[in-house]
Amino acid sequence: MRPALDLLAQVDGLPAGDVVDLGCGDGAVAGPLRARYPGRRLVGVDSSPAMLAQARGYDATVCADIGDWRAEGVALVFSNAALHWLGDHGALMPRLAGMLAAGGMLAVQMPRQFFAPSHRFLRDIAAAMFPERFDYAGWQAPVATAAEYQAMLSRLGAVEAWETDYVQRLEPAGAGHPVRRFTESTAMRPFLERLTEAEAARFVAAYEEALAAAYPAGEDGAVLFPFRRVFFTLRV
Predict the structure, then answer these.
(1) SS3 label, residue 199
(2) Could you give the strand order of the β-sheet that contains 42-46, starting from the edge strand earlier in sequence?
(3) Residue 140 class from Cβ within 10 Å (0-12 exposed, 13-18 middle, 19+ buried)?
(4) Phi, psi of 225 (to 5 degrees)
(5) In which element (H, E) is residue 168 found?
(6) In this predicted model, what pLDDT tens digit does every residue of 105-138 receive, in sequence order?
(7) Closest C-alpha among 221, 118, 122 to residue 165
(8) Which entry of 23, 33, 153, 230 is 20 to 30 Å from 2 by CA?
(9) Closest CA to 206 of 131, 114, 123, 136
(10) Are 205 and 138 in contact (CB under 8 A)?
(11) What 8-state DSSP symbol labels residue 127?
């Protein structure tokens, strides 16, 4: 929750209008948003019916793909760790800004871990082991730098943009390297989905070996795992 709360701390002075939690998932940020803006209509938007079924604390929920969702006169579009799944941010962010009321804010946090060993190893190992299925020639990270978002959005209003490395202590949890356990339900999924069970076992073994060198475990088996995130707020 810390990145979401760090982003929310930079939001203030909103005009009248709804607060939208864009890519709300199971509603993890609904509580802090409600506490910060108790008198506002709070709307959660997500493409997963299963996630929305678990979400609590909203006045309304909308099942929609972020790429297709439309609104107008919104006071705050708040998006925590969701927009990195969408491409063409040069078009996406201005479109979201166009849904805001005058004085409204777009507040976004996204992971920018794509060049760290935890994520780079996935691409490198997959391309080396299964080149016919994984070709990253010309690959570009889906999330830009804070400076690039500042330049991209400055013509639309007042922008603040920054990046933060959160150093997480990952405790040992069963078999496997702690970083692998951390990525297996997120960054690893697109790779494993394209592999047979036997191929996945070989892939994970190679990934674990590389992780052990990049993120050495302490005597207790825990590792320190820096994780970078990019933030920006735009007031139109």
Answers:
(1) helix
(2) 60-63, 42-46, 19-22, 74-80, 100-111, 223-235, 158-170
(3) exposed
(4) -130, 100
(5) strand 158-170
(6) 999 999 999 999 999 999 999 999 999 999 998 8
(7) 118
(8) 153
(9) 123
(10) no
(11) H
CA-wise closest residue to 105 among 97, 94, 113: 97
pLDDT digits (tens, 9 = 90+) for 26-38: 999 999 999 999 9
Single-letter code of the amino acid located at 61? T
Answer whether 40's CB lies under 8 Å from 21's CB.
no
Distances (CA, A) of 70 to 49, 63, 82, 103: 18, 12, 16, 18
Which residue has tokens 């500042």? 150
SS3 call for 236: coil
Name residue, tokens 């929310």. 8
